[in-house]
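Margin note from the TA: students keep mixing up input and output lines. Inputs are the sequences; the output is the structure of the whole complex. Example:
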Amino acid sequence: MGFWKNILSHRAGDLGTRADVSIKETHFTALDTELTGLDKKRDAIISIGAVKMVGGRIDMGKSFYHLVNPGTEMGKASIVVHEITPSDIHEKPSIDSVIREFFKFCSDDILIGHFISIDLNFLNREARRITGRPLPNPAIDTLAMVDWLKWSSHGDDSEINPENYQLHEIARGLGITPEGAHNALMDAFMTAQVFQRLIPRLEQKGISTLGRLMEVSDPSRKLKHPGMVI
Amino acid sequence: MPFIKAMDTLALNVLLDDSSILSDLGPDVIKSLLNKASLETHPKGSIIYKRNGGFKDSLRIIVRGAVKVMVHSEGEDDRLVDYRGPGDAIGFMSISGMESRKGDAIAIEETTCYVLERDTVFDLLREKRAFAKRFFEELINRYISKPRRASLKKSLLYGGGERLLFSTPVGETVPRNLITASGDMSIKDAASVMTASKVGSLVIVDGLGNPTGIITDRDFRDRVVAKGRSQDQPVSNIQSVSLVKAEAGETCIEALFKMLHYNIRHILVVEGGRLKGILTDHDLLKLQGTTPLSIVQSIDNQLRPEGLADCAAGIRQIIGLFLEDGLRQTHLLGIVNELYDRLFNKVLLLIEKGLGPAPAESCFLLLGSAGRRDEALLCSVQAGILYRDPTSPEHEETCVRYFTDISDRFSDCAVKLGFESGGAGVFCGSVSSWKRLFVDWLEASNKRTIAASLPFFDMRVQGGNGELKEELYEAVYHHLYRKTVFLDVMASNIIKTSPPITAFKKFIFEKSDPNKGRFNLQQRGLKPLVDIVRFHAIRAGVRETSTPERLRILKEKGSDLSPYVDELAYSFHFLSDLCLQTQYESWKKGNGMEAWLDPADLNKLEEKALKQIFSFISRLQVQIRERHKPIAI
């Protein structure tokens, strides 16, 4: 229960004066992390991947991908899921330097992730430890977005009617084919592509400013379809 | 950043497999290129770019989806001129600065594309010759299939572009007579020299004949008219001094790079230190071959009717290229009709410009096949001019003189553009005289008048006030329904030409040379069908002129023909396609555009379908004969 409580109590950063800015002009960083497990106390980040977007445009030249030496024992499960072995990690930089570089990369962008609460839990834990405060960036969640679109279109949009809320299932529905290795960078790229295709659909529903976007994709928003597998 | 490395498969699969323009680049180059690209997805139906605006400086390579390019026609709906799919690039012409966007690009389905900025593309063009070669080849060959390219090598303007662009030295492309002027010549005199020599630019030279600057027609607009400058000033005040040169031995492609790089439209060609001529972007565009958009551009740019001959030839060329790409007449009609429309509009515009404003309200009509808009390879153009009744005998004289002049010039021009005049020339007259013409035909109701009237029932307004035509039609139809014998005679007349097939489903051939063993598909297959549909349309008061449209409305109205409409539509498309193919083959061999078909050229399936269609048309003719008592004429 503690895990869920943590997720739901997470507060996204403040939007400040940007609520009326159009989505098309907003700078985003789509991110994904790979973790040794989901336990916030015991587990650690093993890689961070991110790509930059301006509105719906993905900037192919600006990406971030670093493997991290987590300093903890990696579970066998992680090896299976992420295809990262302990020897891959061993020589990698420590989380401190990677996190600092990542914060620089994000600048003051809006962060996008799929079920981003989990990533933020770990990123904020490290941020607090290193800088004394959590990431200041506002964050939005593609999962919440899809959930809201599915609800508001009453299942009429066949491309937004996934069987479950897993990133790859949602991407498949939107016609995005998974390419390349399964890692944090490719998942961040996939998240960006999902977001890219959701923007026009959101616009159709009258959501074109950052403020409105935050309302429907707040990571702490209660899902409209709570029974879906995440 | 290792992003591109991580997405090797994505990037390389997509770009190497689908995009031939990038296929000569190594994986490393592709990776560095992708590092500079961004990825966009456009929802179905959205506008990727609009004509003349927005997103000017980028090239898009389609990864997934499809895009259509539409051009805008004054007062009408936008028309389709091109399709692009995965691997194709959009936006080249405008990033090159050579022309502004002529059309809107619209996503037909959800479309994902890589976006490369202008600078990135230019760097690549300069640094990677293999890419440059591919790139231009792609643009040139988009509409030119391989076998055709081989046969078109002779043609300078159309299709030979690839060879010319890469191997022709600029020295061979520049016009022989270079026009120069000294810097102290007045702006006014320079303008006269340019007009007299029909050139768009003038090189300013010093006493030794060395170039010191250049003036272009654009400078007159931007630096004289717009600035309110006196025309007595010396041209040196308005000349541009950045003189970019190309050696006469350089290839056109190298000259094109320079023009792209410096964003200029003229380049000086020098040989042995001496000035040889000027090469314009227009000269190079001409070498680039034919695309629907380049024809639109070329039509827009013409200043004299004669200049449109190349455009008309270009339209025929496009038809051939589309046909060899496997496109059917139904698909290419939209594109081709749009080009014809622009062509005829431009002809009229240029003629009118030469004659001054019309003395009465008028409308220009296209008749027969041009009016029906259902033939892609238009052989002849029949036209008419309808003007409001003159107010006095003097006014009438002025009108007759003015409109006869227009019609004569149009006929002349049509012939120069490669169309047959259609025999009758351009009928021109006031609304009253047109009414009289129809009434005479209706009253006479004989074989000759029926034959003469048929193309007039296919009239379509090409320009001017369409109300005049409506007024005429009201009167004609009013008279027609009181004079039913006209329709009976028309019925017995149109069934005289029967399809070339016997009751035992054997083809009937010409018996004598030069077309022995063949039959004219247009005259004996398509025409009877078009006649039947027109006849029913007139009877039912359907004013549309294209055969498919007439059929659609006849079906809606539930006319006698309704049960056969679908089959007729299928037959029409089948015959049109076959006819077009036959005409095109004949035209290509230099035998004119007649559709003499040798059924031995058909496969078994086509032969069977054709026989069935002919028999079907014969049956409909019998039906007409039974319903409209034959009248001896």
